[in-house]
Amino acid sequence: MKARNPDLNDPTSAEHAELGIPPLEVEVTHPGPHPFRRDLVLLLALPLGGLLLYALGEWLLPDAWLPTFEDLAAGFTHELFWQSLAVGLFAQIIDGALGMAYGITATTFLLSTGVTPAVASASVHIAEIFTTGFSGLSHWRFGNINKRLFKQLLIPGVIGALTGAWILTTIDGKAIKPWISAYLLIMGIYILSKAWRHVKAHRTEAPKHVPALALTGGFVDAVGGGGWGPVVTTSLLGSGMDPRTTIGSVNAAEFFLAIASGVTFAILVGFTHWQVIAGLVIGGLFAAPFAAWLCRHLQARVLLVIVGLLITSLSTYNLWKALG
């Protein structure tokens, strides 16, 4: 999953700062129990916790909201689960190497597998609750949050996310799919443009348009399945904002956006897409070493070009298929 703290001293982060994209993050570790003991505890605790939550859900939630054990067995062997696992792995690798573009990458690839826009966006945002929650908590713990910037981002961002989720679930999937593909195509071109952009010198105050930026970012993030990072984070960094507190504040606000979008989608769409969510989460768990390898062997500019071309090409194909 996402690393925990911006590493502003890493040489690669200097290149990121020049391009106006989030700096690399490192996992913060502390002395503790033997790794084997910790892994054994997790191995026992996670399944037990999952079973407890499942039992509570069976008791508290309406019928048909949760899958049966037979559905679970069938779901984990379904092609859609394995496709989503591969998508989650790839998208988290990109996010770990660039510090952004998880939602856009995952949604673009999910749409190409035939998933509807509402299911794709819902799955991505519910999966992001886990990553953004841990990331936001870590940023708060290490003092990376600018409270004023966080407040400016939070309410407009949540309003935009709720509005986008509601619109996406009330419009026919086939009718809106070309528009979503067109948006993702534009975002792919935008990511490509970042490869040749240079940012301004650091400024101490946030730009005046932060609430409008957050409203727009939250809306397109919910409708398009991603975009909060590329729209909000890179815009603020590109205006010269301090990388450490900008990343922390935006990531902390993103957690609440993911909850707002995820709950809205869960209420309006339901949990019929749990295989996609499980695939995204499990795939993302194994992404860290691959992202680290990319950071060591490829420059950020090259990664931006590769990701931009992938998203642009796939979005063009999805758009052609939707209009055909």
Compact summary:
The chain is mainly alpha-helical and 324 residues long. 75% of the residues lie in helices and 1% in strands.
Question: What would you note in describing this structure?
Answer:
With 324 residues, the chain is an all-alpha fold. It has one domain. The chain has 14 helices and two strands. Strands 1-2 form a two-stranded antiparallel sheet.
Question: Any chance you could write out the topology, listing elements then pairs?
Answer:
Layout lengths: L4 E2 L4 H9 L5 E2 L8 H26 L8 H8 L2 H20 L3 H11 L4 H25 L5 H24 L2 H22 L15 H15 L3 H11 L4 H27 L4 H12 L2 H10 L2 H24 L1
Antiparallel strand pairs: 1-2
Helix pairs in contact: 4-5, 4-12, 4-13, 5-6, 5-14, 6-9, 6-11, 6-12, 7-9, 7-11, 8-14, 9-10, 10-11
Strand content: under 5%
Any low-confidence stretches, pLDDT <50, length ≥5? 30-36
What sequence of helices (H) and strands (E) makes up the elements?
EHEHHHHHHHHHHHHH
Specify the oligomeric state: single chain
Counting helices, strands and paired strands, the structural category is mainly alpha
| Helical coverage, percent range | over 70%
- State the separation between the terminal residues, measured CA to CA: 37 Å
In total, how many beta strands? 2
Taking all Cα atoms into account, the compactness measure Rg is 19 Å
Arithmetic mean pLDDT? 76
In one word, what is the shape? Answer: globular
Count of discrete domains: 1
How many helices in DSSP terms?
14
Give the biggest sheet: 2 strands, antiparallel
Strand order of the largest sheet: 1-2
